[in-house]
């Protein structure tokens, strides 16, 4: 299947055509379009209407400086302390198999064999280039937030992803940015009481990139949803 880059007409189409896009075109997103997305996303609901997200939208030189510094650090083997582990450890079934299958399907599409660790690391490293996207989004939040506020931030992400589809844009939500909290702080200048929670790439998908053909599996409806009666 090839990625659908049309503007979507309705929410169902936006949901069905959204995929995590891991290669973007070097084509800027018009500023007005970008501002409209974030303006509309203000309507995202949150428990108690706390609106616990702090959003940093990087384009142009600030984006290039930020990702340049992260990549430089990575190339020198530099690491920072993750704000949160990406998954519970150890991951249990069937969650473990879902995660494994997604990774294997992606590397298969890219023709990267299991034992080619350097090629797999290079692919993972593309996270830290925002997959070549012209817009890099970092979301920070107060360290005192509880689990329910993290749901709110997830809802905010989905709002952005669907609004992006309406504009013919694609996105990649990225927990990977939790691995570089110090560099995020340096480039966003967020207050000390906050830390990075998640990031997102946004832009025009490269329709010719094989990685963008990945349509990840889902559990059957009956496995996770019960209707009563
Ligand atoms: C909160 C969140 C964080 C994610 N972090 C990453 C990431 O750091 N890197 C990445 O390549 N994909 C990341 N993903 C994408 C997931 O792997 C992807 O959503 C999942 O495999 C389903 O595929 P789809 O989005 O293409 O439907 C993330 C998704 C979510 C919702």
Name the hetero compounds present: flavin mononucleotide
The total of helices stands at 8
Shape: globular
Here the CATH topology of the domain at 11-85 and 130-214 equals NADH Oxidase
Largest sheet: 4 strands, antiparallel
Q: Which structural class do you get from the secondary structure elements?
A: alpha+beta
Q: Give the CATH architecture of the domain at 11-85 and 130-214.
A: 3-Layer(aba) Sandwich
CATH superfamily descriptor of the domain at 11-85 and 130-214: NADH Oxidase
Give start-end ranges of low-pLDDT stretches.
none
CATH uppermost class of the domain at 11-85 and 130-214? Alpha Beta
Mean pLDDT score: 97
Biggest sheet strand order reads 1-2-4-3
Helix content: 25-40%
- Element order, helices and strands? HHEHHHEHEHEH
Radius of gyration: 18 Å
By DSSP, the count of extended strands is 4
**In what range is the share of β-strand residues?**
5-15%
Report the end-to-end length measured between terminal Cα atoms.
37 Å
Descriptive key words:
229 residues; alpha+beta; NADH Oxidase; 4-stranded antiparallel sheet; 8 helices; globular; binds flavin mononucleotide
Walk me through this protein's architecture.
The structure is a single chain. The chain has a four-stranded antiparallel β-sheet with strand order 1-2-4-3. It is 39% helix and 12% strand. It has a domain at 11-85 and 130-214: NADH Oxidase, CATH 3.40.109. The protein has helices at residues 11-17, 31-41, 60-75, 95-109, 117-125, 147-166, 181-188, 221-224; strands spanning 54-58, 135-142, 170-174, 194-203. By secondary structure, it is of the alpha+beta class. The mean pLDDT is 97. The radius of gyration is 18 Å and the shape is globular. The protein binds flavin mononucleotide (FMN). The site of flavin mononucleotide has 12 residues, from strand 3.
């Amino acid at each position: 299947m090839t990625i659908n880059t049309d503007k979507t007409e309705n929410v169902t189409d936006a949901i069905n055509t959204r995929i995590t896009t891991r290669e973007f075109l070097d084509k800027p997103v018009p500023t007005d379009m970008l501002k409209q997305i974030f303006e509309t996303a203000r309507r995202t609901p949150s428990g108690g209407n706390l609106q616990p997200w702090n959003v940093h939208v990087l384009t142009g030189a600030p984006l290039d400086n930020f990702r340049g510094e992260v990549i430089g650090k990575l190339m020198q083997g530099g690491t920072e302390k993750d704000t949160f582990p990406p998954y519970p450890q150890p991951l249990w079934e069937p969650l473990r198999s879902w995660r494994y299958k997604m990774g294997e399907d992606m590397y298969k599409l890219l023709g990267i064999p299991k034992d080619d660790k350097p090629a797999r690391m290079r692919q993972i490293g593309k996270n830290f280039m925002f997959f070549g996207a012209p817009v890099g989004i970092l979301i920070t939040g107060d360290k005192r937030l509880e689990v329910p506020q993290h749901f709110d931030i997830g809802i905010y992400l989905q709002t952005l992803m669907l609004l992006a589809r309406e504009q013919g844009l694609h996105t990649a939500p990225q927990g990977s940015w939790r691995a570089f909290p110090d560099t995020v702080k340096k480039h966003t200048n967020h207050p000390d009481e906050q830390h990075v929670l998640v990031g997102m790439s946004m832009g025009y998908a490269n329709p010719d990139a094989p990685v963008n053909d990945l349509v990840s599996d889902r559990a059957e409806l009956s496995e996770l949803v019960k209707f009563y009666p």
